[in-house]
Amino acid sequence: MTMNLDFTDADRAFRQEVRDFLAEALPSDLRRKMVERRHLGKDDIVRWQRILNARGWAVPAWPVEWGGQPWTPTQRYIFQEEMALAHAPEGSPFNVNMIGPVIARFGTDEQKRRFLPRIANIDDWWCQGFSEPGAGSDLAALKTSAVRDGDDYVLNGQKIWTTQAQHADWMFALVRTDNSGRKQQGITFLLLEMRTPGITIRPIPSIDGIADLNEVFFDDVRVPVANRIGDEGRGWDYAKQLLGHERSGIARIGLSKERLSQLRHLEADLHERGILSDAERQRLRRRLAEVEVELRALELTQLRVVAADSHGGGANSAASILKVRGTELQQRMTELTLELAGPAGLPMPDHHHHDDRGADGWLEASAPFYFTMRKVSIFGGSNEIQKNIIAKTVLGL
Amino acid sequence: MDFDLNDEQRLLSESVNRFIADRYDFHAREAAMKQPEGFSREIWAQMAEMGLLGLPFAEADGGFGCGPVETMLVMEALGKGLVLEPYLATVVLAGGILRRVANEAQRAERVPAIITGDHVMALAHQEWPGPRHTTNRLMTRGVPVDGGWRLSGAKVAVIAGHAADELVVSAATPDGVGLFFVDPRADGIVRTTRAGYDGVRLADIAFADVHLKASALLGTAGGGGAVLDAVFEEANAALAAEAVGIMQDVLGMTADYLRTRTQFGVAIGSFQALQHRAVDMLMQVELSRSMAMLAAMSLDRPTGERRLHIAAVKAKIGQAGRFVGQQAVQLHGAIGLTNEYKIGHGFKRLTAIDALFGDSDHHLDMLAEAGGVPAIA
Fold first, then answer.
1. Residue A278's CB: how many other CB atoms inside 10 A?
2. Is A135 contained in some domain?
3. What letter does residue A234 receive in the DSSP assignment?
4. Which residue, of A168, A198, A233, is where some domain finishes?
5. Measured between alpha carbons, how far apart are the two ends of chain A, in Å?
């Protein structure tokens, strides 16, 4: 054997199987919404997640006994890529990528039985209660307090930037149970039901015209001790191990490929309709070439990490760049689409009343999508925090 | 999909890297540069002894029959040492032409001597004034005459042209681009040695009615353009690997410097502005490494696919090399500006690599024209 770019026959057959399933199973109205970058409602995401779950593919990275698939890292990569290329929604990241794996790894048997099947099917919609007004990049500075009182913790404090808390049945939260030691100690990981008395949600309108972000206030909220993950005071460790757990899809190569292919399609279509002049088209093609070169370099880097993981992997300095460069590229694509729309991209979409604009459906989503995608370099550890980590762990600075 | 080296490749990589670490530090390089030819014949002989000069040649010709991955490994290691010896000129460029179009007799006359380090060759193609990145539209003429050819014209910046025992010269013939073996000591040839800013010695070469035998032609008159295109793709893959070696070395030196240089009473690597710059460099190095691998893995692909993959690689390497080189100088401060320290030389070689065989802009134009890079599946 020598170095080569070819997927194995088994991987190719797997890709075809995924592709065939998606072509058959993805509802056309959902696909259309995705193509036009329209906002997906809770119902859309739940509907798709249940279709995937019925096929056994809703939570492929979980342990097999809880509905995971015995896929190789390469297959997980292919699955994610094909999902993106087929314009399939990603499902709820909080359910699938975050709380599910945490409970599967650190939860009690009782918690696993109770929560995991409902998480996989989105019978419960989960949100993440990590950030606070004074704890963003410095997450460990969080102050929401949980005081033990009999078989309950009593919570007081506030979370913020809680995505889709308005839909949520449950929240997984980091709370402070001890102030005496280092700030990373004394943090506890709790699961709380959003209907519990004392919880107030205030929506925060965001720059894309959607109100998916929220503040969540806790006023003497009682959470049973049975809903604690692992040990009291070790919540930081559990949360940390959750990040960087799944490396086969961090760079979102499939999404960026799909967006680039849409841009290529638009470039040709708008030129043909006389909207783009020859010179504008040439300039755009040149920019797309630049983006594609960057995307190809990142794709190869992602594949190197996937291949390393397939062999038992381990630390790899290539992995550390996937999130930073992946988000930068995703944002670049949205900029280019926005520029293509020009002044015709100014009108905001009406989420209550959708006009079918046929081939120009992408127009009114171009600006909101551009605005909202600024988030990807901020959440999950901002790109600056990622660089701090790389400087320390890889370069020894 | 496999990015791992096999055992032989790992061994090769280790031994070349050890050779560079042991025998080719910055002072050894300085000494080589001061030799009359601008490189060390002793090092060249050692590279021959290690078998490096024979790697890509067919076993039937006395070589090892190795492929692009082995060349990548050697070039990456040579990059770390900023090696001046004419590996690219002799083994990759002239060697690539020999492997592609030379007939058995032509190969038998040259390949064994190349492998032992006794025959340095150079490719004389670049012209000025003239188009910068094409393989056709040459002003040098090869005119058929009785029993041979008459060669007239001028070439510039011929890598290792000053030291070459033999040249391959591209020229326009009535049938298209032809490639010719030329003895640089023949009547009518004037060689002017030039010093490249990257430390690599070059020659400007003028040909005034130089008479060549019929047997000097490589392949067919008219077939040379396609051969050059393919050989330049191999050269760009090799340069990508060399650039990765340089960038890796430059990044390592920069990180060391940030850890040890103190100002304001602390290591300057404790400043976040500098940390993030170093991380930006690291990211470019890793992306470039991925692209150098893509180049090596693309060379045996069908022509169209290979061409666009290599274009993407060279476009990326040029930009990344420029960024990493500039930032390495910036983070070293004044020390980055002195010729007495390795960083500046790495920066200059990375600059030269972008300029050779089509820069970033040239390759981006090529991709824009083609409308995309073929998918990996």
1. 8
2. yes
3. B
4. A233
5. 38
Cis peptide bond prior to A343, omega within 30° of 0: no
Specify whether A160 is located in the same domain as A49. no
Q: Does residue A306 form part of some domain? A: yes
Q: By C-alpha distance, which of B3, B158, B120, B26 is closest to B73?
A: B3
pLDDT class of A381 with cuts at 50, 70, 90? confident
Pull the structure tokens for residue B111.
């390949």
Token pair belonging to A373: 């995608």
Expressed as residue numbers, the domain containing A384 is 253-393
Could you give the residue numbers annotated as active site of A? 246
* Torsion angle in degrees (nearest 10) through CA of A67, A69, A70, A74: -150
In a domain, A279, yes or no: yes
CB atoms within 10 A of CB A296: 27
Q: Which domains does chain B have, with CATH numbers?
A: 7-119 (1.10.540.10), 123-220 (2.40.110.10), 225-370 (1.20.140.10)
Whether residue B3 lies within 8 A of chain A, CB to CB, comes out as yes
Which two tokens mark B318?
């040029």
Q: What is the pLDDT of chain A when averaged over all its residues?
A: 93
State which H helix or E strand residue A217 sits in.
Answer: strand A213-224
Q: Where are the beta strands (DSSP E) in chain B?
A: 121-124, 141-145, 148-159, 166-173, 176-182, 189-195, 201-213, 217-218, 262-263, 266-267
Which domain CATH number covers A263?
1.20.140.10
CATH code of the domain in which A189 resides: 2.40.110.10
Q: A41 and A167, same structural domain?
A: no
Contact in structure between B175 and B220 (CB atoms under 8 Å): yes
Residues A173, A195: Cα–Cα separation, whole Å: 15
* Rounded Cα distance, B336 and A189, in Å: 50
Token reading at B178: 């032809």
pLDDT in tens, A151-205: 999 999 999 999 999 999 999 999 999 999 999 999 999 999 999 999 999 999 9
Q: Last residue of a domain, which of A32, A64, A91?
A: A91
Interface of B with A in 241-300 (CB under 8 A): 255, 258-259, 269-270, 272, 274-276, 278-280, 282-283, 286-291, 293-294, 296-298
Together in a domain, A186 and A270:
no
CA-CA distance, B123 to B361, in Å (whole number)?
24
Structure-block tokens of residue A308 = 């390393």
Task: Return the structure tokens found at A358.
Answer: 């046929």
Q: Which of the 8 DSSP states describes residue B82?
A: T
Q: Tell me the H-state helices in chain A.
A: 9-25, 28-35, 42-55, 73-85, 93, 100-106, 109-120, 235-242, 253-272, 278-310, 322-341, 363-372, 383-393
DSSP B316-364: HHHHHHHHHHHHHHHHHGGGGG-TTSHHHHHHHHHHHHHHTTS-HHHHH
pLDDT lower than 50: segments of chain B? none
Span A346-375, mean pLDDT? 85
Residues of chain B found within 8 Å of residue A308, distances taken between Cβ atoms: 3
How many structural domains is chain A composed of? 3
Nearest to A318 among B67, B269, B286 (CB): B286
Hey, how many other C-beta atoms are within 10 angstroms of the C-beta on A137?
A: 12
| Confidence grade of residue A209 (pLDDT, cut at 50, 70, 90) | confident
ipTM: 0.95
Using an 8 Å CB-CB cutoff, list chain A residues near B270: 397
Identify whether residues A263 and A386 lie together within a single domain: yes
Residue A391 Cα, gap to closest chain B Cα (Å): 6
The predicted-structure confidence for B120-131, as pLDDT tens digits, reads as follows 999 999 999 887
The neighbour count for residue B274, using CB atoms within 10 Å, is 21
CA distance B54 to B45: 12
Q: Phi first, then psi: give them for residue B179, nearest 5 degrees.
A: -115, 135
Q: Please check whether residue A179 lies inside any domain of the structure.
A: yes
Number of residues written out for chain A: 397
Give yes or no: residues A379 and A292 share one domain. Answer: yes
